[in-house]
C-alpha cells in the first residue's frame, strides 16, 4: 500500500466505482513528464488515502504514434466500455493532441481507439475531457495551447457517437484573458506573445442544473484553479467567469467527484513543481452553483 503523499502525479483524475466501493486514480505518472513517455498507471483505494498500485493501465507498443509527453489521462464510462482521454506529443507532426483509448476494465489494458489524435493535427492541443450533453451527444472539451496562440483557449468539438474521431470543426469557447484572475507572462524563447495559460478543463453539472467548468492557469506565476459557468446551460456557452480563483496555493488541473459517502471532493495536483507534485483531496460544498471548501 502507498499513501497519497507518496504518489508523484500530475493531473489526477478519480473514477468512482460505486458497485465495488473502489476509487481509481489516474494521472500523469511518468517521473519526468516533460520527456519520454512510458505509459499510464492507475491506483485503487477504498478510502482515498491508502492505495494499491501502481497498476500498468497503458503501455504503448513499438508502432504507437507518440513517445513523448504522456499527459492528463482521464477515464469515462460510455456505452458499456471505459474510454481513456490523454495527451500525446505526435512524432509525425511534433505537436501535442488528445487521443482516445479503450478498455473493458478500469485497470486496463487500454488500447488505441481513435485513429490518431482527435484534436486538429496542426494545433498544439492538450487536456481533452468528455462531456455528454442533455441530448446524448458526446463532446470533447480541450485546450489550444498558449505556445501556439499566445492567449490560451478552451475549445469544444463534437465527437462521433463511437468516439473514434471528431465530427465537425472545433469551436472556441473562450480565451484565458477573458477571465479576470489569470496573469499574463512573456517567454521570449517560445514566442513573442503576451501569454495566458489554459489547462485541464473539467465539466461539472451543479445541483441547480448550472453547467460549470473547472480550468487552470497562473496568478503571478503561481498555478491556480478557476471556475467558469455557461450562461445558456449548454457546452457552447457563452461562458461567464468567476472573478476569483477557487484554489491559489500552487495547484491545479482539478476535477470534482462525489465520494462513496456522497461528499463532493476536489482533487488536483500540488505543488506544481516536478518531482514534488502530489494528488490532494479537498472536501467541497456546492450550493446553487457556488463551490467552496468545507
UniProtKB/TrEMBL annotation:
Signal peptide residue numbers: none
A Pfam family reported for this protein in Swiss-Prot or TrEMBL: Glyco_hydro_43
Pathway the protein takes part in: Glycan metabolism; L-arabinan degradation
Gene Ontology MF term list: hydrolase activity
This protein's UniProt keywords: Glycosidase, Hydrolase
Top-rank taxon: Bacteria
Family affiliation: Belongs to the glycosyl hydrolase 43 family.
Annotated protein name in UniProt: Glycoside hydrolase family 43 protein
Organism: Gracilibacillus salinarum
Amino acid at each position: 500500500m502507498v499513501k497519497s503523499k507518496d504518489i508523484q502525479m500530475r493531473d489526477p483524475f478519480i473514477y468512482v466505482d460505486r458497485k465495488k466501493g473502489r476509487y481509481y486514480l489516474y494521472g500523469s505518472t511518468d517521473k519526468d513528464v516533460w520527456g519520454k513517455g512510458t505509459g499510464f498507471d492507475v491506483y485503487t483505494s477504498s478510502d482515498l488515502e491508502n492505495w494499491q498500485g501502481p497498476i500498468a493501465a497503458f503501455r504503448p507498443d513499438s508502432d504507437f504514434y507518440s513517445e513523448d509527453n504522456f499527459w492528463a489521462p482521464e477515464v469515462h464510462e460510455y456505452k458499456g466500455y471505459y474510454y481513456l482521454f490523454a495527451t500525446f506529443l505526435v512524432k509525425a507532426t511534433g505537436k501535442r493532441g488528445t487521443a482516445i483509448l479503450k478498455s473493458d476494465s478500469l485497470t486496463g489494458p487500454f488500447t488505441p481507439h481513435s485513429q490518431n489524435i482527435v484534436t486538429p493535427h496542426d494545433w498544439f492541443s492538450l487536456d481533452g475531457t468528455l462531456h455528454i450533453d442533455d441530448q446524448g451527444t458526446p463532446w470533447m472539451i480541450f485546450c489550444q495551447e498558449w505556445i501556439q496562440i499566445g492567449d490560451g483557449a478552451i475549445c469544444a468539438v463534437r465527437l462521433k457517437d463511437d468516439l473514434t474521431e471528431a465530427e465537425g470543426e472545433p469551436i472556441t469557447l473562450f480565451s484565458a484573458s477573458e477571465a479576470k484572475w489569470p496573469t499574463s507572462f512573456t517567454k521570449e524563447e517560445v514566442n513573442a506573445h503576451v501569454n495566458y495559460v489554459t489547462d485541464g478543463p473539467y465539466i461539472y453539472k451543479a445541483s441547480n442544473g448550472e453547467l460549470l467548468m473547472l480550468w487552470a492557469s497562473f496568478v503571478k506565476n503561481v498555478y491556480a484553479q478557476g471556475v467558469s459557468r455557461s450562461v445558456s446551460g449548454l457546452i457552447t456557452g457563452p461562458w461567464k467567469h468567476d472573478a476569483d480563483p477557487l484554489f491559489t496555493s500552487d495547484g491545479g488541473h482539478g476535477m470534482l467527484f462525489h465520494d462513496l459517502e456522497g461528499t463532493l471532493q476536489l482533487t488536483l495536483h500540488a505543488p506544481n513543481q516536478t518531482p514534488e507534485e502530489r494528488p490532494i483531496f479537498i472536501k467541497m460544498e456546492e450550493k446553487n452553483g457556488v463551490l467552496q471548501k468545507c
